[in-house]
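Researcher: Let's walk through a ligand-bound prediction step by step. First, I give you the protein sequence. Second, the SMILES string for flavin-adenine dinucleotide. Third, you return the three-dimensional complex as structure tokens. Ready?
Model: Ready.
Researcher: Here are steps one and two:
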Amino acid sequence: MARTMPAVDIVFVGFGFTGAIIARELKDSPLRILGLERGQPRDTVPDFQGPAMHDELAMAVRHGLMQDTARETVTVRNRPDQTALPMRQLGSFLPGTDLGGAGVHWNGQTFRFQASDFRLRSHHEERYGRGFVPEELSIRDWGVTYDELEPSYTRFDRLIGTCGHAGNVRGEIRPGGNIHEAPRSEDYPNPATEPSYLGAIFAKAAMELGCQPFQVPSANLTRAYTNPEGVEMKPCMVCGYCERFGCEHFAKSSPQTTLLPRLREQRNFELRTGAHVTRVDLTPDRRRARGVTYIDAATGEEVTQPAEIVVLSSFAYNNVRLMLLSGIGTAYDPATRQGNVGRNYCYQTMSSVTLFYDDDVHLNQFMGAGALGTMVDEYAGDNFDHAGLDFIGGAYIGAFTTGARPIEFHPVPPGTPRWGAAWKAATARHYNHTGAITCHGMSNARASNHVDLDPTYRDAYGQPLARITFDFPENDLRMSAYVTERATEIARRMGARRILANPRTAPWSVVPYQTTHNTGGAIMGADPRETAVNRYGQSWDVPNVFVTGSALFPQNASYNPTGTVGALAYWTADAIRDRYLRAPGAMVQR
Amino acid sequence: MRAALLLAGLLLTWPALAQDAARGRAIVENGTENAAPCASCHGMDGRANRSEQFPRLDGQSAHYLLKQLEDYASGSRPNEVMTPIAQGLTARQRQDVAAWFAAQDFAAGPEPTGEEARRGRAIYELGIAERGVQACINCHGPGGLGLGPLIPRIVGQWSDYAEAQLHAFREGTRRNDAGGAMRAIAPRLTEADVDALTAWLERDLPSERQHGPRQRR
Ligand SMILES: Cc1cc2nc3c(=O)[nH]c(=O)nc-3n(C[C@H](O)[C@H](O)[C@H](O)COP(=O)(O)OP(=O)(O)OC[C@H]3O[C@@H](n4cnc5c(N)ncnc54)[C@H](O)[C@@H]3O)c2cc1C
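Model: Step three, the predicted complex:
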């Protein structure tokens, strides 16, 4: 028999950045707020402290802070006619678990999307004509515009203290920043990072080619900062243990360093960890959520948690899976192209160029930070004229110095033996003299790429796993070839002895890490038949269910997602607080 | 084989250092026209004297020592004793004295026991959750041995001096810590924390065991 807990007004499924932002925005509401997180509680002190946190083997190689695939994973395949298999070891992406989610072990590269990204189909049809977007692509408009989201972006930047040099403040173009960016209403809260040596070489080469380099906007703080919540952060020590690690210095923005200290004091808020939600409970007509059911990790007991509002804040495809497990909306079928949940799963189209230097060029990349990079935006999104090109989209091109940690960073030129004395000699020779340029490419939707429930494989609680069907669209491969060529042109001017281009090739593989920028599946938009949620993140089918995070993206832009994920969380919080609570029910009529 | 290689490496680099340190030795011992002999306060071996507020310099990172002398000279670490002394040295002389003290053997007696020292060690290794103090070990390294080139060794440091520095960071009179790392931490420490930390960090010198327990104010 399931135990039933006292009812609450709003329950969050998963407690990373998105859950924490919305829960905090409701601080002055009369709501009783409950956060449910499947993992453990954890905090900067004592959980992220050195030297244990700098254990590269435990954290980076063995994924100490990430989801345990023995309990829950996803199955993957490239095409609908294949049989998906479970991802038994994390590889291509590294989803989080425990309090704070992936916001603990992320890098902190903090971007806004372009205005055109939010109107991707309309923008291309207006600029290039109706037939221009390749038929293969099922890209769409978001139903929300950059201008509408701008105040929310600004709030997220203030919350996490983003460090950067603005290139466009209310239309005033400022050299030194990203001049291609949509206008910001104010400057970044903190000054930009200082370029690494590799970044400086990159900037010089990019400038010679007419690009306008700038420092990647960073949530690894450049100075002590007190955010609008009154939480203090400290400056980054550039220790190189950032991506895949928790920050011991209160210097990387995470739910722990920006919001949790205040949430802990918030009277109408309760957090329960070790609570793995298995479904949203609906009324028999599937029009209303009654709450959620979770498993108490301590006892294994099933618990019923009644709630008036359910927010799915469990990360990307996890939100999609919970919708499908609960019967919210209809599952998308790529054969018929019917169904509104599971559509437009997208990713990120990454490629790179490796630069091997002579041994008198010391890059010293062990002095690094997750978001320490220098980049150009000339080839991102639709910042360049695509007329005459056979693809849409682009990539930002940047040189990152994130830490060159000893176990995982051992670049050697092709042709080097894979083991033995020659490999060792080459590793020692190239360790401090090898850099890379990254192309961070857009990912466009196509009909066959989607998320549904796996017919065979189940998690530790006996529930079907999410099944991801994904391969790179032809369009995105052409785009990747083009931007990788642009990156190679920059690389040629960076004085390396040898350069090696690594364009993205199909099929998508789960083995090498690419990014944890999984998007789509519960996409937002204007059409209830083809999108899962309306422009506020509210389910079309079950209006007291809201969805957060990158699951809402109809397709993924050329940038890292979390700036937009954070902005959408503020946007949804505003909608719940200022509109939904006044008149509960659908905020957009079907 | 490995040891032989290491030794060969040391022999190759030693002469350059030795020259600096040798010139430094003369200054430490006799001073210059503009600077008093360092030895009078810090000792020839840099172990100073626990009863004054003179810091131990023995075996400290040369880069750190040099940076301090430059900061005293420039005023980002103003001090009525050391600022004129550092200003009285040429850039080259500062390098030489830093090399001398860095080359001295660091020696420390056993880890102090007792309630206060144990608490100090806990703060050092775990931090203080309620007040947002990250563990000192993150920067000053396991055992307080420092993380060269710029993060100083603090184990073994005389407690009166260490305490004075934590106060100076708290009050902002010492502001030469890059990014304000220590100025963000020091104000979050209570006097009891400072006492505990400095009690744990201080180590008897092997030759000074006869001194007995330190007097606490
Ligand atoms: C290595 C790495 C580097 C990254 N770098 C960047 C970057 O530089 N820039 C950028 O923009 N983005 C980056 N990201 C992405 C970023 O971390 C995410 O976009 C962001 O953290 C997502 O926040 P979220 O709240 O949607 O989900 P999460 O942070 O994943 O939080 C979801 C929470 O829900 C919990 N949960 C899941 N299922 C259940 C359930 N059934 N019941 C209860 N709880 C559940 C999880 O345990 C987790 O704590 C990176 C990610 C990774 C992994």
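Researcher: And what stands out?
Model: The interface with chain A takes residues 125-129, 132-135, 137-139, 141-142, 179-181, 184 of chain B (CB under 8 Å). Residues 2-30 of chain B form the longest helix (29 residues).
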